[in-house]
Amino acid sequence: MPVGYLISVAVIAAGTLCALAPPRRPRPLAELSFRFGLLLNEAPVLGGYFLLASTLLVFAQRDIGSPGAWAVVGAAALTGAGLVAIARRGLRAAPVLERALAEGLGPDGRAAAGAGPEGRPRHRRRLARALFAPVFPRRRDVERIPNLRYGDAGRRNLLDVYRHRSRPAGGPVLIHLHGGGYRQGRKNTQALPLLYRLASRGWVCVSANYRLRPAARHPDHLVDLKQVIAWLRAHGPGYGADPSRLVVAGSSAGGHMAALAALTPNDPVFQPGFEEADTAVTAAVCLNGYFGPYYGHGAASSPAAHVRADAPPFLIVHGDRDTVVAAREARRFAGTLRAASAASVVHAELPGAQHAFDLFPSARFEAVVDAVEVFADRVLKGR
Fold first, then answer.
1. Angstrom distance (rounded) from CA 277 to CA 290
2. Rounded average pLDDT over 187-206
């Protein structure tokens, strides 16, 4: 019995099962399953490559001779089928997003999502990325300017700027805030494919740290984001930015923060010491966002409590298998926005997607980045 092969197959099989059918209860098991299945849920090709290499190796070594060994080969084949099912679910994100864009922006939104700016079909790039580069989001035509200070909280008040190496002027701005339950996380870790793609298109993108629990609490994190917006308005033109075209985005807790910022423009309560700064944004993008109340705080700490008729356009993208923040929360928030706001609200639930689907340049997240690009283009053109 090839013990090493057995262990390899068992590990990949367990991760595949966690990705295919993550348990929601009890909470500790759901958390463990989420973490164990995350990589394979977004990059199943990596598990397939590993299984194939391991299987070829044991055959090359003529280490398959017992019924037990053949049983492991059978388990590897079954696991491979599971990985194929995961990959197919990831490819279903594109049509779901196209339908959501059509519903939220009109039929032109769906048409625009099908082809890239060079006219090439986007699905070919997504498939190539999924097969050959599922974990390398960086681009040579983009430069990152790290650790610029925007506040007084040390390394928690630093941001990175991403821009095209040709340094064009007047580019729109995207600010992204990481997730981590307001307890952990840092810039330069999440939604990198989004930051690099838009920067390669002439955008100026920002990824910022912010103060974390328990040293900080609501509304300290929101104040930090408002400071980032104020910093962009003051210093962004020096990096080629046009701060009048500003999209705020966030993942998980960052989505909570981005939604609050978009719905509380120029509110002096959240701008202590910089009350006169313009902190209004053009649009908001929430990826696997949380929309409930903040820890131990009342409903006023929820984005839903600040929904208004003049809210900016929103793009809300969530996974239907999210075991950290249930998809129904995003669905409910999108409904609340649509009922009150005159602006566009695009909401999509991605088939098979778990929490933190924006960590890898997978086929699924490539489709999300395409949708963000289409959404932002339409919003910035005022259509």
1. 27
2. 96
**pLDDT single digits (tens) 265-310:** 999 999 999 999 999 999 999 999 999 999 999 999 999 999 999 9
Question: Is 320 among the residues known to form the active site?
Answer: no
Can you give the pLDDT at residue 139?
86
Bond into 312 cis (ω within 30): no
The Cβ-side half-sphere exposure at 94, using a 13 Å CA radius, reads 20
Instruction: Tell me which DSSP letter residue 279 carries.
Output: -
The runs of H, that is alpha helices, within the chain are 3-20, 27-42, 44-60, 67-91, 93-105, 107-112, 122-132, 192-200, 220-235, 253-263, 327-340, 363-380
Is pTM, for the whole model, over 0.90? Answer: yes
Task: Give the strand order in the sheet containing 171-177.
Answer: 142-149, 158-164, 204-208, 171-177, 241-251, 283-287, 314-319, 345-350
Which is the catalytic residue, given 8, 33, 207, 252? 252
Q: Is residue 160 among the annotated active site residues?
A: no
Q: Which of 355, 358, 362, 370 is catalytic?
A: 355
The span from the first CA to the last CA of the chain, in angstroms, equals 64
pLDDT of residue 130: 62
Query: Could you confirm whether 322 is annotated as catalytic?
Result: yes
Residue 358 corresponds to which amino acid? D
CA distance 301 to 294: 6
Among residues 322, 341, 344, 358, the one annotated as catalytic is 322
Residue 62, SS3? coil
